[in-house]
Amino acid sequence: MRYQISGKQIDIGEALQTHVKQDLGSAVQKYAERPTDAHVIFSKSANEFVCEIIVHLSTGLTTQAKAHAHEIYESFDKCCDKIEKQLRRYKRRLKDHHRDRAEPVELMGASSYILASETDDQESEPESLQPMIVAEMETKIPSLTVGEAVMQMELAGAPVLVFRKEGKEGLNVVYRRDDGNIGWIDP
Predict the structure, then answer these.
(1) Based on the domain organization, do 22 and 56 belong to the same domain?
(2) What is the pLDDT of residue 95?
(3) What residues pair up with 67 in beta bridges, in sequence order?
(4) What is the pLDDT averaged over residues 91-115?
(5) Partners of residue 63 on adjacent β-strands
(6) Would strands 171-176 and 182-185 be described as parallel, antiparallel, or unpaired?
(7) Is 59:36 a contact under the CB 8 Å cutoff?
(8) How high is the pLDDT of residue 122?
(9) What three-state secondary structure class fits 7?
(10) How far apart, in whole angstroms, are the C-alpha atoms of residue 165 and residue 174?
(11) Do 68 and 144 reside in the same domain of the chain?
(12) What does the alpha-carbon distance between residue 81 and residue 89 come to, in Å, rounded to a whole number?
């Protein structure tokens, strides 16, 4: 597994990098057959350290977690525990998904935009009804079954996932509803 360990505005020492590689490697190896790479990002927020881990699996699925703590090692350990819990919860489904799928998940390119939010201090009428684009990025839309899409959304901790249903042309959406259930939009 390839590791990319970085810090935002903080230095990451060799001891922490070794700790990350050993602990994350053993936690992920238990539940995922062939993880391809892991991104570990450390940052500081006020008086707490923040650790974010993103692990890409060979099947094309991704799992991620984020944790806060007063110590940097503690933030990593909490985050690693979250990743391990997600993978343990979906171990059987991950293995079934890998067995049924001969090739990795197919990804389709798309554009992703970040729009400026409306601020409450603007009491005047907006000049235009067109929102201001803050950033434009490239994103990937996976081709999945509905079950795989729900699993991917849960593994990523995302509130919504846009995907292309295998064998269909249109885009589908799964999302977490306010009542705790999962919603699916199939055009």
Answers:
(1) yes
(2) 60
(3) 51
(4) 66
(5) 55
(6) antiparallel
(7) no
(8) 53
(9) strand
(10) 11
(11) no
(12) 12
